[in-house]
Amino acid sequence: MLNAEMISFHQCMHCNTLDALCIDTCAKCLNTNMETVMIPGRGKLVSWTTIRKPPLRFKSDGIYHVGVFDLDNGFRVTGRFLPGDDDQLGDRVIAVPSMMTEHTTPTFRVQKNG
Ligand SMILES: [Zn+2]
Fold first, then answer.
1. Residues 96, 68: one domain?
2. How many structural domains is the chain composed of?
3. Looking at the structure, do residues 34 and 57 belong to the same domain, yes or no?
4. Are 17 and 26 in contact (CB under 8 A)?
5. 21 C-alpha to center of ligand 1: Å?
6. Which residue, among 89, 94, 48, has the nearest Cα to 72 in the 3D structure?
7. Are residues 51 and 34 in the same domain?
């Protein structure tokens, strides 16, 4: 099995709420004791689209693809998507090392053969 890139979340040390955003106050209990936790980037493909006119800060990337992914921990995240030829919605995806401009955005591709 391939190793998935880890994706960072923030977890409240008081009520254990996970948040994908980089925040320092828990949205649920307002505790400020948040810690970064790393979660393997594994899940399934929900949808994806092609961006043909990237915003200026991504211009060097040219045409790129953006997807929505449901991670195995129940979180829905958006990120870059590296499409293959016969990818289907619902396919298993895995996070891969990113070569993109913005390194805080996770990059996913479909995991072939399980
Ligand atoms: Zn909390």
1. yes
2. 2
3. no
4. yes
5. 14
6. 94
7. no
Q: What pLDDT digit, counting tens, does each position of 26-46 carry?
A: 989 999 999 999 989 999 999
* 47 and 28 assigned to the same domain: no
pLDDT at 58 (0 to 100): 75
Rounded to two decimals, what is the model's pTM?
0.79
**Is beta strand 107-110 parallel, antiparallel or unpaired with respect to 76-82?**
parallel
**In the structure encoding, which two tokens stand for residue 69, read together?**
């992914």
Residue 83 placed within a domain: yes
Distance, CA 35 to ligand 1 centroid (Å)?
11
Question: Is 1 a member of any domain?
Answer: no
Is residue 93 within 8 Å of residue 69, measured between CB atoms?
A: yes
Residue 67 amino acid letter: G
Measured in Å, residue 16 CA sits from the centre of ligand 1 at 6
Q: How far apart are the first and last CA of the chain?
A: 8
Q: What is the pLDDT of residue 9?
A: 86
Ordered mean pLDDT values, 10 residues apiece, the chain (114 residues): 83 89 86 92 96 81 90 90 94 85 78 72
